[in-house]
Amino acid sequence: MYQIRILWRRNVRHSVHFPKMLNAWWPSTPELLEQFEGIVYAANEIHGPGTHWIERRQVEVLH
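^ that's the sequence the OP posted. Answer follows.
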């Protein structure tokens, strides 16, 4: 299973409306990944190329 989150450079200052919970880990689904890609695209348009990105990690599922 994979998880994803959005990260950004430390010098980036967001408005109070930017959802800070996006830097928490979320289960990676096609729908959520598509949403995150849209957010990262828009944020990079506002703050500059490479200021925001999606981080992905593999997690072990315990049964």
